[in-house]
């Protein structure tokens, strides 16, 4: 996509003093004196409003600019859900070569602050100002009628895309900050100073606004507005479809129905400065019904569009059944534009290149490449999250030796995905396929298109710690997000950057199952869970719990199935930026995110010494403060109608 520059350099002085909504409204006020619109205040060679909508080609460039405001969610330093929580850990301090932005790592270590917040998407982070993105959407919607050579069907589609993106930018801010101002229309240049001082709106108002915008964007039949699927793969991949819009709406409504936003009394004292209560403290069961209905509409649309759970086709590569199942899981994320992908984000030239470099360790002892860093390290709690081979939690499986999970065992030829004769702990034996597909550890194997590699991480070994950087601090590696086409030599690295899966079908199935269960229709949730489990080589929930769990009837109650769905979601969506937000919306973050970070003793060179549990960090999630980002203090001074989030 060719992008239109809408950041006038003549206004660059504002970035040093004013930020976020403050910039937005001060720019409006400043422009009102000279009666020019926002984009008219530009240096040479930057488009004005008149130029931007002079014809179809220029307007299309502006449309593509709207997409450029989407955060680069496939980058470990730009998506807070990667490195700001407990799903991946890193050594500390880090060399400047090991990160693009250090913000998320500071958040994970409890260093967030209100004076200069980390990952501050309210004011602009890594060149992404979401309020500016919203403003650009409004400019587009206000001026598209000026394009005289635009076919009506394209106009309807472009309007739908702009409305969806405006909704998504509001949603992104809402998820981070909670109740936010709604900017449905840009204020006129004649607006009074008081009109510029906006208020935060109540949670339900914001949610309903976002849902209504997405409804507008997704309206019409299959031939109206947003397409059901992208047909021009050479020019349009990454643009929003009707299915994607409906799926994102489903996610918004599931979040709104969840404990953080539904009947949460923790924020009863948070009121806007005009007296509005920003969090409704009353629980509303109908929110789950509304969420379930939205999920079902999205699933039906996905089915009609031909989307289905991904299954690996090895082509000319010969693999065994275990590897096929492993690649079902890995390539559901990493195979470009696969059958399960509902919306893939292409923001950035190579949207997942940095992520793969950070995740992949040194695989080949004969070729050391410093661009393969292996530092995105899952802690031990993630290893313990996955099921046993029988499809139940490790502490529930009555056939699995939970008490001796930290004792050494020797790998045999019958143990898939591990090196025969190698010694590792019982925790790594007889686990479900998703464990071996998602994570690698000392003694495991790593299947790639150009061969299968052994992971040997004890001190001095080629995947272990050999210097002050470029190693896994926990001893685990994030295999799931590394495309199997990655290949390197000592002097060259070739990787296939895939679109980041902002939404895939299994995610939507899990959201639907959760909504059904919370709506009192637990039996209807099970088929959606079981489809996901079958793809991962597991028996159904009913069979697994009945035959192997020490709590065999757990799935028959709403609370029991809730626990199962949440763990199933944690496993299926591991390392995809879901856990960070799920723990918050479920209000389990204070317990889970305050649990210690453990790894193995990576400085040791023998199995007995290496496989010792080591405390790496004691994080502390402070509730209710840490559920939301702080608004920068300066913004509250510029606009006294804004109020700070609780605890900040």
From TrEMBL:
Lineage: superkingdom: Bacteria
Domain SusD-like N-terminal: 38-252
InterPro entries with a match to the protein in the record: SusD-like_N (IPR033985), SusD_RagB_dom (IPR012944), TPR-like_helical_dom_sf (IPR011990)
Domain RagB/SusD: 340-648
Leader sequence residues: none
Compartments (UniProt record): Cell outer membrane
Keyword check for Membrane: yes
Pfam families attached to this UniProt entry: SusD-like_3, SusD_RagB
Keyword RNA-binding in annotation: no
Keywords, comma-separated and alphabetical: Cell outer membrane, Membrane, Signal
Segments crossing the lipid bilayer: none
Family per similarity comment: Belongs to the SusD family.
Protein name: RagB/SusD family nutrient uptake outer membrane protein
Organism: Mucilaginibacter dorajii
């Amino acid at each position: 996509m060719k992008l239109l520059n809408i950041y006038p350099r003549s206004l660059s002085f504002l970035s040093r003093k004013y930020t976020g909504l403050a910039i937005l409204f001060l720019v409006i006020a400043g422009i009102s004196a000279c009666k020019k619109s926002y984009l008219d205040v530009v240096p040479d060679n930057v488009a004005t409003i008149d130029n931007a909508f002079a014809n179809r080609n220029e307007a299309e460039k502006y449309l593509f600019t709207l997409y450029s405001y989407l955060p680069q969610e496939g980058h470990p330093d730009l998506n807070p859900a990667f490195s700001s929580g407990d799903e991946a850990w890193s050594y500390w301090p880090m060399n400047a070569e090991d990160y693009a932005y250090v913000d998320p790592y500071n958040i994970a270590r409890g260093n967030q602050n209100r004076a200069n917040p980390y990952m501050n998407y309210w004011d602009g982070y890594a060149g992404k100002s979401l309020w500016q993105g919203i403003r650009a959407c409004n400019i587009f919607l206000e001026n598209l009628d000026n394009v005289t050579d635009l076919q009506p069907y394209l106009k309807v589609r472009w309007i739908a895309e702009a409305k969806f993106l405006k909704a998504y930018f509001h949603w992104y801010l809402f998820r981070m900050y909670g109740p936010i101002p709604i900017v449905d229309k840009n204020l006129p240049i004649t607006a009074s100073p008081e009109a510029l001082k906006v208020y935060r709106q109540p949670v339900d108002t914001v949610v309903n606004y976002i849902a209504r915008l997405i409804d507008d964007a997704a309206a019409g039949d299959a031939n109206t507005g947003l397409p059901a699927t992208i047909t021009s793969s050479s020019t349009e991949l990454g643009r929003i479809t009707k299915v994607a819009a409906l799926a994102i709406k489903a996610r918004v409504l599931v979040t709104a129905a969840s404990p953080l936003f539904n009947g949460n009394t923790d924020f009863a004292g948070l009121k806007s400065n005009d007296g509005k209560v920003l969090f409704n403290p009353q629980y509303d069961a109908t929110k789950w019904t509304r969420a379930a209905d939205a999920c079902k509409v999205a699933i039906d649309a996905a089915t009609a569009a031909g989307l289905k759970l991904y299954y690996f086709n090895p082509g000319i590569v010969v693999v065994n059944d275990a590897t096929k199942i492993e690649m079902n899981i890995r390539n559901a994320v990493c195979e470009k534009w696969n059958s399960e992908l509902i919306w893939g984000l292409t923001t950035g030239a190579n949207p997942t290149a940095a992520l793969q470099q950070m995740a992949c360790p040194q695989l080949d002892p004969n070729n050391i490449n410093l661009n393969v860093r292996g530092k995105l390290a899952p802690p031990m709690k993630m290893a313990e999250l996955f099921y046993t081979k029988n499809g139940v939690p490790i502490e529930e499986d009555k056939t699995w030796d939970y008490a001796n999970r930290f004792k050494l065992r020797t790998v045999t030829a019958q143990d898939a995905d591990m090196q025969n004769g190698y010694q590792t702990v019982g925790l790594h034996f007889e686990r479900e396929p998703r464990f071996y597909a998602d994570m690698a550890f000392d003694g495991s194997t790593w299947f790639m298109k150009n061969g299968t590699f052994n992971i040997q991480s004890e001190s001095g070994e080629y995947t272990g710690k050999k210097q002050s950087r470029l190693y896994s601090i926990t001893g685990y590696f994030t295999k799931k997000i590394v495309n199997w086409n990655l290949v390197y030599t000592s002097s060259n690295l070739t990787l296939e950057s895939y679109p980041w899966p902002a939404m895939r079908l299994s995610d939507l199935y899990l959201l639907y199952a959760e909504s059904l269960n919370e709506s009192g229709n637990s039996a209807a949730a099970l088929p959606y869970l079981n489809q996901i489990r079958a793809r991962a080589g597991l028996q159904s929930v009913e069979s697994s719990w009945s035959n192997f769990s020490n709590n065999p009837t757990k799935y028959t109650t709403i609370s029991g199935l809730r626990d199962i769905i949440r763990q199933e979601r944690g496993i299926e969506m591991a390392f995809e930026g879901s856990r960070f937000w799920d723990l918050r919306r479920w209000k389990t973050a204070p317990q889970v995110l305050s649990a210690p970070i453990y790894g193995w003793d990576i400085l040791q060179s023998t199995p007995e010494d290496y496989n010792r549990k080591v405390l790496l960090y004691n994080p502390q999630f402070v509730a209710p403060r840490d559920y939301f980002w702080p608004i920068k203090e300066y913004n509250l001074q510029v606009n006294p109608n804004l109020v700070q989030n609780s605890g900040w």
